[in-house]
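Q: How would the structure tokens look for this protein?
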Amino acid sequence: MATEVGGFDDDPSAEVLAEAAAAFGLLASSARLHIVWALAQGESDVTGLADRVGGALPAVSQHLTKLKLAGLVRSRREGRRQVYFVDDPDVVTVARLMVGQLTGRADRADRADPSGLPAQGAGRLSGFDA
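A: Here is the predicted structure in token form.
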């Protein structure tokens, strides 16, 4: 029997869970998450993204291809340039929520431990083993 979690009464279908897992799998790469984060701030071409995320142009291009195939990123042509953007506000919300939560957690940990040393278990999501 399904219990209400987060305002949802029924469990999602297997297809929806598989699609969500695939999207989360793509965002599990810090490079791809950084690209989505950057595109959430505004559209960019691959050169601008490579500069911003500190990646090699071919690698960033490959990440963009994967994100585009998954429907997380779109692009349009402007002359000779391909401009990438995220036009799904839910993808932006998920990225901002997770990064914001972890940033807030790190900030709280820094304030709680004035030594500047990482707290025990820092860098791990609570409740999950690495």
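The longest helix spans residues 89-112.

Residues 2 and 8 are 9 Å apart (CA to CA).

Upvote if useful.
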